[in-house]
Amino acid sequence: MMRTTILDIQKMKQRGERIPMVTAYDYTSAQIADRAGVPMILVGDSLGMVVLGHTSTVPVTLDEMLHHTRAAVRGTQRALVIGDLPFLTYTTTEQAIQSAGRMLQEAGAHAVKLEGGAAMAPTIARLVELGIPVMGHVGFTPQSVNQIGTRVQARNATDAAQLIEDVLELESAGAFAVVLELIPAQLAAVVAQRVRIPMIGIGAGAGCDGQVQVWHDMLGLYTDFKPRHAKPYANLAGIIEQAITTYAEEVRAGTFPGDEHSSKMSEEALQAALAQTGE
Ligand SMILES: Nc1nc(=O)c2c([nH]1)NC[C@@H]1CN(c3ccc(C(=O)N[C@@H](CCC(=O)O)C(=O)O)cc3)CN21
Ligand SMILES: CC(C)C(=O)C(=O)O
Ligand SMILES: [Mg+2]
């Protein structure tokens, strides 16, 4: 089966097909997402929160991202896997080339994502020139949480106009798609109509060309907080807790393991072994 390419993703927009994307952080989950037919998987730096237990994405390192991306890539056959570049790993074009290069060469990602608007355009243009597909990310950019807090962005006219400019710059720089996070739905819809490249929303309304959800949020696995933009399609935390509770009860009661989970040897072999131990 052929791997999804950035051209396939862009064709989806041209055909008016909406694009589902989900995060995944390891082999098993990426395998499930791939089997479900999701064309793009993001190994997000949100792993700092939902996998590593930090309170923001700021502490996440490139080595941690490479470690998880390698595992996720191994789980996929069809999905395009995007590695999120973490905080302060793309502060110059040279550093971005190093970081993105490791993401593709060492971790096997097929593209990278980085946060920022017009200011990132020269860096993105150079990465694209070198053959590295880049996804942009504007609106609420979690790596700037210490500067902007966690709230809907670009609500006033000035900020909304700036966001439109930012996306146009990213498109000109050669970004193959852009994440729009936590911006008003009407603004996201207008932006999506104005550009040829897919706009992937999270908390940005139904007018985007695609959507992205964090694995743990959409499956009900992360219970520290539930962002407004997240829809729990399952309550896996509850299901898992119940399964582990039942397991613990069965171990305590001696009803697990059963014969079907165990193996046997011949009584003769056992007696012979006991004889040899000097009984
Ligand atoms: N579990 C999880 N889900 C995410 O979507 C996510 C992460 N972690 N970590 C990285 C970033 C951070 N994100 C966040 C974090 C907090 C809010 C939040 O507190 N949202 C407010 C709405 C703010 C507003 O409306 O102004 C909320 O009440 O949900 C949103 C996105 C999105 N990403
Ligand atoms: C929320 C998405 C877009 C992201 O950047 C992440 O999961 O890190
Ligand atoms: Mg991220």
From TrEMBL:
EC nos: 2.1.2.11
Pathway recorded for this protein: Cofactor biosynthesis; (R)-pantothenate biosynthesis; (R)-pantoate from 3-methyl-2-oxobutanoate: step 1/2
Show the catalytic activity. Answer: (6R)-5,10-methylene-5,6,7,8-tetrahydrofolate + 3-methyl-2-oxobutanoate + H2O = 2-dehydropantoate + (6S)-5,6,7,8-tetrahydrofolate
Keyword hit for rRNA-binding: no
**Active site (UniProt):** E181 (proton acceptor)
InterPro entries xref list: Pantoate_hydroxy_MeTrfase (IPR003700), Pyrv/PenolPyrv_kinase-like_dom (IPR015813), Pyrv_kinase-like_dom_sf (IPR040442)
Compartment annotation: Cytoplasm
Q: Name one GO biological process term.
A: pantothenate biosynthetic process
Q: Which UniProt keywords apply?
A: Cytoplasm, Magnesium, Metal-binding, Pantothenate biosynthesis, Transferase
Q: How is the cofactor bound?
A: Binds 1 Mg(2+) ion per subunit.
- GO MF term set: 3-methyl-2-oxobutanoate hydroxymethyltransferase activity; magnesium ion binding
Q: Which EC class is this protein assigned?
A: transferase
The residues the record assigns to binding 3-methyl-2-oxobutanoate are: D45, S46, D84, K113
HAMAP family (alphabetical): PanB
Q: Which family does it belong to?
A: Belongs to the PanB family.
Could you identify this protein by its name?
A: 3-methyl-2-oxobutanoate hydroxymethyltransferase
UniProt organism field: Oscillochloris trichoides DG-6
Gene designation: panB
